[in-house]
Amino acid sequence: MTGKNAVRAGAASRRMQNRDRLEADIAAVAVRVFAECGYEGTSVAAIAEGAGLSKQNLMYYFPTKQELYARVLDGVLDDWLERMSSLAQAGQDDAPAAHPADLLRAYVQAKLRFSREQPYASRVYAMEVIGGAKLYGDQIRERVVPVLKRDIEVFERWIAAGRMAPVNATHLLFAIWAMTQSYADFAAQMALVLDRRQLQKKDFDEAEETIVGLVLALIQPHGG
């Protein structure tokens, strides 16, 4: 590569990095606004104002509100599925054997950590699903369903090997999702009941202890 070409390539790389960084900043503002106002109640102008941009400038990067919404939900699923990968990885043929209790404890911990660290992301996803997943249903089917099926297969192998009590694996995962995600989606209600402004780390620690206890009691093999 000649000197001029190297300079051009370096400039192009910097422009791309700057664009990626700006788009990530816009998405970080958008996830909060979508969580607070819902898709229909959110305006591009409000997101642009929060990001310190003009509406026209924001729309250069995201020409429509739906494109920005999809970018936000893509990021939510990227983060969520990355944190939830432990069970699927345990089911790989070359994965070392691990105790189901340890893996499920880690799974619950990861789900609660997501609720604590990314409450807006959890709420945006929940609102989309509650609304019938009209704008993002195809992506959920393509990305979430295969992971769910792999996790179920892991559970079924554990059950067949006598390492886990025979339970409905699908509904076990649904129950774990409901218990852990509620600490983001219904945090305001929980804080009101607990008479505090917001949930604290100790609330999540106590939630983890309770949820893990319930799950492990359910999967304990008979006579184990």
TrEMBL record:
Keywords: DNA-binding. One of its GO terms (biological process) is negative regulation of DNA-templated transcription. InterPro entries: Homeodomain-like_sf, HTH-type_TetR-like_transc_reg, HTH_TetR, Tet_transcr_reg_TetR-rel_C_sf, Tscrpt_reg_YcdC_C. Residues 43-62 bind DNA. Residues 20-80 form the HTH tetR-type domain. The keyword DNA-binding applies. GO terms for molecular function: DNA-binding transcription factor activity; transcription cis-regulatory region binding. It comes from the Bacteria. PANTHER family: HTH-TYPE TRANSCRIPTIONAL REGULATOR RUTR. This is TetR family transcriptional regulator. It comes from Pseudoduganella dura. The lineage of its organism: Bacteria, Pseudomonadati, Pseudomonadota, Betaproteobacteria, Burkholderiales.
